[in-house]
Write a structure and sequence with these properties.
The complex is a heterodimer of chains A (366) and B (378). With 366 residues, chain A is α/β, with parallel strands linked by helices. Chain A has 14 helices and 13 strands. In chain A, strand 11, helix 11 and strand 12 form a beta-alpha-beta unit. The termini of chain A are close together. Chain B is α/β, with parallel strands linked by helices. In chain B, the strands form 2 sheets. In chain B, strands 1, 2, 3, 8 and 9 form a 5-stranded parallel beta sheet that branches. A 4-stranded mixed beta sheet of chain B has the order 4-5-7-6, with helices on one face. In chain B, strand 6 and strand 7 form a beta hairpin. The longest helix of chain B is centred in the N-terminal third of the chain and has 26 residues. The chains are: A alpha/beta (366), B alpha/beta (378). Chains A and B meet through helix 8, helix 12 and helix 13 of A and helix 12 and helix 16 of B.
């Protein structure tokens, strides 16, 4: 069996969720089947991958999510080139997100091949449900309806797609894995230093404003707590300004972009990780944090939460409840230790091997 | 003639409410009384009234313990349930058994407190039912020699315990024993008890469906003098819904039991009619909870032990009543992180959704209570 993967990014060119998913999943699947992954020919791609890679030339382009130039036009250009480059000697087309859907639909029709589409996120999530782009949604919808099999990264995402685009009779939830060895090979100390971590893009989808509101509440009760915002994004300056306006500057630290090695240290040295996402299809950072033994407080609109027992969950807007959770984790060592230790073990259940087996089952069902 | 002994524990806790950290020092209302009343009404209608009526109608004798916390809640809003129990004790052959008023773990650490809580319970029983129990059930069948000693000092003649695997290896639970203090000791037959209380409606169980004739045959086939079937009273109509046929099962049981030459008996009747065949020593605490049958359902993890230490540390507080409500074992049970096999049972009972929430609310309340008790005047 051969699968042709219509991808967008691969590390080290860019390590967003989609790239990490693609490299981990298809490295494993390439052991049992033939895999070829199509990606735009971005400059930082590696020369060698554990599976076949076809780099699709799309002319003068920067990073995959560059805001200079029109991203939408770049996607369409990639899809057009992809159709030209595509090798039809294959059994399955596996597309990922709306950015590969236009080519997937053309190729399916042209070569009469079965199509699997994985949704890692939706336009609804990315926009924080604020001003979603119609033209992107219509591509997303077409991909959803035309696919022979749909894969979502959570039941939460499945539900969003069902509400937005009507049901799809053949949807499978495949949770992402976590490369736990990187994170769990560090020793965790549960004596409190009172550090609260936000780690992710600073953008409305992830709810950074709620994190600042939360800090304000927590600091009303205890004052020696440090809040770290790790990451960058379009709301970075707005959030900095908000922190200053609340007079919380001395309790906040902004790290900017964080590489993997520093990420592990940040997770480990924090006492609680918070993800107040408005809409997060999966939430890889939650598992990464849990893998280091750091307790997590997350919104109910974070996909991975539906499969977690050892995480504290509440509505993203319920700052009262969320700050109560954070306070309790900081205050009570038994809670910190139990959430930490049990969470660490629970996160181990999320492996890429398991994700690969589930994906293979979807292929076999075609 | 072989005796069949039913013992039912009847209890509802005064559940605490979602108590936020920003209420500490401001709000001393801890209990979820609207929810408690709602649950009490439901359980009364689905279980207490119909189950007691069922026992009266079918002439099944049994022994029953009712926590003081529940009795006072019933007195407030469901006097009809008290009257129904009274009817059963007066004309239906039911016997009331003493326990701690607050359904607490006080027996484990505070002798005077335990004795006082038992006395509060038996005083209320005297007032409501004009009866003096001769049997003590340390809540949830928690038992050890030490508890036997306490019960003996309070003058109770009979006591009951779990027939744990370890114990029944050498002591068949279907006989009467005595403890080192000369009290009659009855051991729960957990297999035959759980057939009714846990497995009755389980469709993946080999013996589903369980009918009275089949069950009575098992009782008759079991060797020994007395079969001790101890369970939550809420088994009838609440854990096992009416639709499962649990009431019909019970109603059909007396005929099947009698036709096989057996009879129902109360615990005190056993104490009078049978002679202990041996003396049993139980040095470590046992209970009927979870698969481990020890204290781990309440004190199995650090959150539970932390909360328990909080309760101990507050024994000098002025507001004894609130302190005692907080001692009810259910608060600790909700914090349990039991294994997969037991988690289903725990989640069923947990009003907060997760053991972490249960712990967080409890700790917030304890913090406020501590402030209120010890720092108010400063």
């Amino acid at each position: 069996m051969k699968v042709s993967v219509l991808g967008w990014e691969l590390p080290p060119s860019f390590s967003g969720g989609l790239g990490i998913h693609t490299i981990n999943l298809f490295t494993i699947l390439s052991g049992v089947m033939e895999v070829v992954v199509y990606v735009p020919d971005f400059p930082q791609l590696s020369d060698h991958y554990p599976f076949g890679v076809t780099k699709v030339n799309i002319g003068e382009l920067g990073s995959p999510y560059s805001t200079s130039g029109d991203f939408y036009d770049m996607v369409l250009e990639y899809n057009a080139r992809l159709v030209e480059t595509f090798d039809p000697h294959t059994d399955i087309i596996h597309a990922h997100d709306w950015i590969t859907v236009p080519a997937a639909i053309k190729l399916k029709k042209k070569y009469d091949l079965p199509l699997v589409v994985t949704f890692h996120s939706t336009e609804y999530d990315r926009s924080g449900n604020f001003n979603p782009q119609e033209r992107i949604m219509s591509i997303e919808k077409e991909g959803y309806n035309r696919a022979d099999r749909v894969i979502t990264v959570s039941g939460y995402t499945d539900k969003i797609l069902r509400v937005l685009y009507g049901g799809h009779g053949n949807t499978t939830v495949v949770y992402n894995g976590v490369s736990s060895s990187i994170f769990s090979n560090v020793k965790k100390n549960y004596s409190s230093r009172s550090t609260v971590l936000y780690f992710g893009r600073v953008t409305s989808q992830k709810g950074p404003t709620f994190f600042v509101e939360l800090a304000k509440q927590v600091l009303r009760i205890v004052d020696d707590v440090k809040f770290i915002i790790a990451g960058t994004g379009d709301q970075y300056w707005q959030i900095k300004e908000m922190v200053d306006r609340f007079g919380l500057g001395s309790n906040f630290e902004f790290t900017g972009f964080v590489d993997e090695a520093s990420a592990v240290k940040l997770y480990r040295d924090s006492d609680v990780f918070v993800l107040p996402a408005v809409s997060e299809p999966f939430g890889m950072t939650v598992l990464e944090s849990m893998s280091t033994g750091t307790p997590t407080v997350i919104s109910k609109t974070t996909g991975v939460g539906e499969a977690l027992f050892n995480s504290l969950k509440c509505d993203f807007w319920d700052v009262d409840r969320m700050s109560d959770y954070v306070n309790s984790v900081l205050k009570h060592r038994p809670l910190r230790e139990i959430l930490g230790e049990r969470g660490r073990i629970e996160a181990l259940n999320f492996s890429w091997e398991r994700a690969a087996i589930k994906t293979l089952e979807v292929y076999n069902s075609l | 003639m072989k005796k069949i002994v039913f013992f039912f524990e009847v209890h509802q806790p005064r559940r605490i409410r979602y108590y936020k950290a920003n209420e500490i020092g401001k709000n001393h209302e801890y209990f979820w009384d609207d929810r408690n009343a709602e649950i009490l009404n439901r359980v009364s209608d689905k279980c207490y009234i119909p189950a007691t009526q069922m026992l009266i109608d079918s002439g099944i004798k049994s022994s029953i313990s009712i926590s003081g916390v529940l009795l006072e809640a019933l007195l407030r809003t469901r006097k009809d349930v008290i009257d129904k129990f009274a009817e059963y004790f007066d004309v239906g052959g039911g016997e009331i058994v003493a326990e701690t008023y607050y359904h607490s773990l006080s027996s484990l650490w505070n002798e005077p407190e335990f004795k006082e809580q038992v006395k509060l319970d038996s005083d209320l029983i005297k007032t409501l039912f004009n009866r003096t129990p001769t049997t003590l059930s340390s809540d949830l069948l928690i038992y050890s020699n030490e508890i036997g000693r306490l019960a003996h000092e309070m003058g109770y003649k009979n006591i009951i315990a779990e027939g744990t695997d370890r114990l029944i290896k050498n002591h068949d639970p279907n006989y009467l024993y005595s403890n080192p203090y000369g009290q009659n000791l009855l051991l729960r037959n957990y297999r035959l008890s759980d057939d009714v209380s846990f497995r009755f409606s389980n469709r993946s169980w080999n013996d589903y469906p369980l009918y009275a004739d089949k069950y009575a045959k098992w009782l008759a086939d079991a060797p020994g003098d007395v079969i001790n079937l101890f369970m939550d009273y809420e088994t009838f109509g609440e854990h096992q819904w009416k639709e499962t046929g649990i009431f019909e099962f019970m109603k059909a049981l007396p005929k099947e039991v009698e036709s096989r030459g057996m009879e129902f008996s109360t615990i005190s009747e056993i104490g009078q009619s049978l002679k202990p065949c041996n003396t049993i020593s139980v040095p470590n605490y046992t209970s009927w909870a979870d698969t481990s049958r020890d204290l781990s359902a309440w004190l199995g993890n650090d959150m539970q032990r932390d909360a328990f230490e909080d309760l101990k540390s507050l024994s000098n507080c002025a507001d004894k009543e609130t302190w005692r409500y907080l001692q009810t074992t259910d608060h600790l049970y909700y914090m349990s992180l039991a294994g997969v096999a037991d988690q289903e049972v725990h989640s069923y009972f947990n009003p907060y959704g997760s053991p972490y929430d249960a712990y967080i609310h409890f700790k917030n309340i304890i913090e406020d209570f501590r402030l209120k008790c010890f720092y108010k005047k400063q």
